[in-house]
């Protein structure tokens, strides 16, 4: 290790990997910001809007399944124009909007906003 290595690390730090708890808050934030979305759009949103953060698909699936099991988000199928099969879409449950909003705010707090 050299001093220059330390400066380079802080100049270009590696992406922060999200745990499932933070990923759940992120998913809710995306659905609040973008509205109904499919899994791919949710995953791509993190890469495009927050490149300093990464989440594995596995962790994202765990977080999504938790949110579905807890009825914070609902899924439905929607046919997209020009595509053969429908996409599974996700939306915030009307009954759990308050809880979803609180958890989404935790994502923004995590970002330091």
From TrEMBL:
InterPro entries: WH-like_DNA-bd_sf, WH_DNA-bd_sf. It comes from the Bacteria. Keywords: Plasmid. This is Circadian period extender, putative. It comes from Acaryochloris marina (strain MBIC 11017).
């Amino acid at each position: 290790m050299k001093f220059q290595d330390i400066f380079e690390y802080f100049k270009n730090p590696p992406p922060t990997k999200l745990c499932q708890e933070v990923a759940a808050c992120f998913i809710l934030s995306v659905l609040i910001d973008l509205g109904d979305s499919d899994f791919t759009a949710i995953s791509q949103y993190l890469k495009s809007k927050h490149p300093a953060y990464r989440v594995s698909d596995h962790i994202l699936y765990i977080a999504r399944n938790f949110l579905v099991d807890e009825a914070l988000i609902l899924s439905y199928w929607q046919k997209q124009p020009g595509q053969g099969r429908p996409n599974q879409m996700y939306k915030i449950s009307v009954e759990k909007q308050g809880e979803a909003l609180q958890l989404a705010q935790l994502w923004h707090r995590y970002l330091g906003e």
